[in-house]
Amino acid sequence: MAWPIQIKFDILEECRAFTVFQRLPPEIRQRIWEAYLSAPGVHFLKLQTRDGDWSWTERRMHNFSNFEASEDVDEEGEMAKVLERDRLPRESHQARLIPVGPFPKADVSHYKTLRKQLAILSRTCIESRSVVKRLENRAETLKLDNGSIISLGRSSDLIYLDYFPLSLYQRNGNLETIPDCPDLSHIKRVAVRFSHTWRPTKNLCKCDSCRKSARLIHQGFYPAHLYQLLARHFPNLEEFFFIDYLIVHRSRSQQGSKGIAAKGPTMLVDIGNQR
């Protein structure tokens, strides 16, 4: 087994400290402190009801899914129904953001690194501590209920969000209830799990099974609840990602034979929000 080559070098003593830092203009020093905290990362969170129960959502989604499946309407008519129903009052249930993982050691979110960096700057000097307080007190800063920092305001961090149990998430029901969580308004970039149960509406093929069907099309299976959650509760959303945990990279032989580059595990949809 070949061991990797280790390269070692010495740094001159006079080059180990940036001695002119204190002579820089204050605004430049503050920019340097902020740059230390500017590396973006991914935070894994989930939207949880206060009592941890989603049964009320399941009941409402089940009722409206049955209602929609019983009606044979075109896509424009269905969209009109959704928009009309969007004006109706809905139940509101308090919700909050919590870490996805139940154990801190299994949590790979970037906010663990961010909190360590904030602690270091808070102990460095008075000036760096004031920068930390200013960034933490920004209105856009995302925090948990206990005050723990998740993401600093105006950062490029990505929030991976779980918000329904898998049995509900894979359905195509509408979001007929309101998860009351004001912190969602602070999120600009969000990612959710892609489900392979979702499928588009398509015309029936000419096989024997489809010929015997009374319908002319296969009904699609769309995550309407996802579209509605993003539209109603993420007013500052700028970018949206699907994460597919089942996708695999093509092997080199497949790429060479088909001439197709390997696809990555994410799909980006830039909704171009301009405010």
UniProtKB/TrEMBL annotation:
InterPro entries: 2EXR. Residues 18-135 form the 2EXR domain. Pfam families: 2EXR. It comes from the Eukaryota. This is 2EXR domain-containing protein.
